[in-house]
Amino acid sequence: MFFLLIMLGTLIGILFGAIPGMTATMAVAVCLPLTYALDLNHGLALLLGLYVGGISGGLVPAILINIPGTPSSITTTFDGYPMTLKGEGERALKIGIVSSLFGGLVSAAVLFYFAPVLADFAIKFSYVEKFLIIFLALTVIASLSHNMMMGLFSGVLGVWLALIGTYDVSVGGNGDTRLMFDFMEPYLAEGFSLLPVLIGLFGVTTILEEAEKGIHENTKDMKLTLQKGSKFSFSVFRHQKINLVRSSIIGTFIGLLPGVGGSAASVLSYTQQKNFSRHPERMGTGEPEGVVASEAANNGLTGGALIPLLSLGIPGDSTTAVLIGAFTLQGVQVGPLFIGENPATWDTMMVALVFANLVMFALMFFAIKYIARVVMVPKYILYPIIMMMCVVGAYAINYGVMFDVWTLLLFGIGGYLATKVGIEVAPLVIGFILGGQAEVYFVKSLESFGTLSIFFTKSPIAVVLWVLIFISIGFSVYQAIKAARVRRSRNGDPS
Predict the structure, then answer these.
(1) DSSP designation for 384
(2) How far is the C-alpha of 85 from the C-alpha of 63, rounded, in Å?
(3) Could you give the count of Cα atoms lying within 13 Å of 401 in the half-sphere of its Cβ?
């Protein structure tokens, strides 16, 4: 049953990833209610399969039709699609699949050895350090957003949404409801339920965004030509060992940073490979090394993003933020104590992650001709089915609460409108998830020490965290100034 769920999750994830516009995050969010009937280990087996499959599947449309299936596959189009134009589509796909397997296994090894060490270190943190860790995560998210101010605003908006509801006396509150009108108290006494919020933001919002682009595609005239030129051979990796290792480590490291996402990992590793390439002028014209760099990096993200989640309780990306929903469904809290108190679940996750990568490789490498046809499935058939799954899942997740369906639609439509004014979903969701914890740690710190200065003087760790916070803010200011100069240069303003 356990391994069957991993295989099923990986297959569904690949299919989601292979359809442009449908991401791994969306796959995990839509299928999250299915884990309600499973125990924690089986639920995680399904979701980790979806995660690995969803990230990997994005290379199929990126290589075949020049449309990245997921944001992390954007640099795969640079060399993958030109290879398809040269009649080497199947070769490019298999190079990407092998690179994805390597990146996924490297990140799983880093997760296995690094997460317990980080968790053991984090156990020593007091409420002060825990609050500063969350503060650091929010500043990193803001600094690495497309627009620093909007990223910061999105994170604060998420925190504000998390505080709606009763201010519980057990966390230092007065027991009254807050941030709502009186008529909302019957519905929002306990705040917004996490899972309908996640499904709405990552399921309904994505469908609305794709619908806006138009579902008038003519898939009947779309033809896939996989192989006319050179065939795949493992010898292509003979001179790509350093590229594979470097890109996998870059992807894993980027995964450690909250809210950054796979697109940054693949862009950074692709840029590095271009800098070190013997023939950088060929990059972008159909070179296998470009596909290797992109795919090893974005699959390296999978294990990296789980490290802050399992050791600190902070999601590394939007998909791991949704994974928190699985733990919430089972009443399990992730954080520094998770690995030590749940060794069986920790071992299960490691087995599931490695097995999901192997299943991904087997399914995609040997059946890529059939999986590639998924890019031709009309969206007007898929999206109504997914919308129905979102609504049914939201309704069933808390034993049939209709307000959860309204929450789903509110955040789905609200998320769609919010992106129109520049609000970013990833910072908002991570702010929503961490907002409640940040408040508890802040209040507990003040109750314990009675002064704000304790946040600066509690320990050397607190000082280091403040240094990292200022570096994060300084980096974001530098990026904003650099972007402004680029814009002025493009507009012909020399100042």
Answers:
(1) H
(2) 10
(3) 16
The span from the CA of 132 to the CA of 392, in Å, is 38
One-character DSSP codes across 181-224: -GGGHHHHTT---HHHHHHIIIIIHHHHHHHHH-S---GGG---
DSSP helix/strand/coil, 166: strand
> Chunked in runs of 10, what are the mean pLDDT values of the chain (495 residues)?
87 82 76 78 86 83 73 77 81 88 88 82 82 81 71 86 85 78 84 82 81 63 59 80 86 72 70 77 80 85 81 76 76 80 86 90 83 74 80 76 89 89 81 84 87 86 88 79 76 60
CA distance 472 to 138: 10
Per the CB < 8 A criterion, the answer to whether 289 and 277 are in contact is: yes
Rounding to the nearest 10 degrees, give the CA dihedral for residues 427, 316, 36, 16: 90
Element (H, E) at 226: none
Q: Write down the pLDDT at residue 410.
A: 92
- What residue type is 447 in one-letter code? E
**449 phi and psi, to 5 degrees?**
-115, -20
- Which element (helix H / strand E) includes 367? helix 343-371
CA–CA separation, 420 and 153 (whole Å): 14
User: Residue 70 gets which letter from DSSP?
Assistant: S
The reported pLDDT for the residue numbered 227 is: 60
- Using CA atoms in the order 68, 73, 79, 84, what is the torsion angle rounded to 10 degrees? -50
Report the distance separating Cα 248 and Cα 257, nearest Å.
15
User: Token pair for residue 147?
Assistant: 């627009």
The pair of structure tokens assigned to 208 is 């609305």
Cα-Cα-Cα-Cα dihedral sign, residues 263, 269, 273, 276: positive
Residue 165 — φ and ψ, nearest 5°? 130, -160
Q: 21: phi > 0 → left, psi -120 to 50 → alpha, else beta; which? A: left
177 forms beta bridges with 166
Residue 355: phi and psi, rounded to 5, are -65, -40
Please state, in angstroms and rounded to a whole number, the distance separating the CA atoms of residues 400 and 407: 13
Cα–Cα distance, 65 to 229 (Å, whole number): 17
